[in-house]
Amino acid sequence: MSENQNLLAEQRRALILDDVRKRGGVRVNELTRKLSVSDMTVRRDLDALARQGVIEKVHGGAVPVVEASTHEPGFEAKSTLELSAKEAIARAAATMAVPGSAIALSGGTTTFALARHLLDVPGLTVVTNSVRVADVFHGAQRPTAAGGARAGAATVVLTGGVRTPSDSLVGPVADRAIGSLHFDVLFLGVHGISVEAGLSTPNLAEAETNRRFVRAARRVVVVADHTKWGTVGLSSFAALDEVDAFVTDAGLPDTARQEIEEHLPGLVVAGGQPDE
């Protein structure tokens, strides 16, 4: 293929990251041949991946960043990553919310993006353990300059609990609240998803709270960008066969799509071609 014609930036970077993780490292000259792009393009891609914290640049190439399975980035750190992907995922997932239904949103930056796209869906009852998600809906319910609240403003239930670095409420209080409820659909953000580990998180208390969410939902929809595929946290809380749909972005490599489709009944790739 000619320089960058058939592969856009996020696609290239997803392929590079997949190579780094599978092989334990890559060299720049190998990538230029494999992707049919210039040395400068590859180095820009490696710079971008290094800024995201998913690889470490070394002389002549890159190696994976080995994070502890207990490492849990804060909300602000995660909110700057994969913005276009999260918006595409949020738009696609929002179409799955039926007016008048009871839904649940877990914590996370992708569910935070989704919340903004749900504001105009009428009659929703929203249960969340995310302080940030609750703020989106509460803000929409405040009186407008015209003298009324936003037409699609939902009824929101925020669980109690202990706050995590990602601004989720977890622990026994949250678990009891969620365990007594039933949802039509759960929109679930994840730290990691893989065939072997299923859905996982570095936070033990959050894993138990997420288990309660999954058990209480008639339909489970995972919303996660392509970088979450192949990531494994300390604690698994659900197997892939407990997931009804996985909404992700176009940065997901074809090999990963095939693997996911073998294990999940519904794969939605949002956004078409990624942005350059």
UniProtKB/TrEMBL annotation:
SMART domains: DeoRC (SM01134), HTH_DEOR (SM00420). Keywords: DNA-binding, Transcription, Transcription regulation. The keyword DNA-binding applies. Coiled coil: none annotated. Pfam families: DeoRC, HTH_DeoR. GO terms for molecular function: DNA binding. PROSITE patterns: HTH_DEOR_1, HTH_DEOR_2. Residues 9-64 form the HTH deoR-type domain. The keyword Ribonucleoprotein does not apply. It comes from the Bacteria. This is DeoR/GlpR family DNA-binding transcription regulator. The lineage of its organism: Bacteria, Bacillati, Actinomycetota, Actinomycetes, Kitasatosporales.
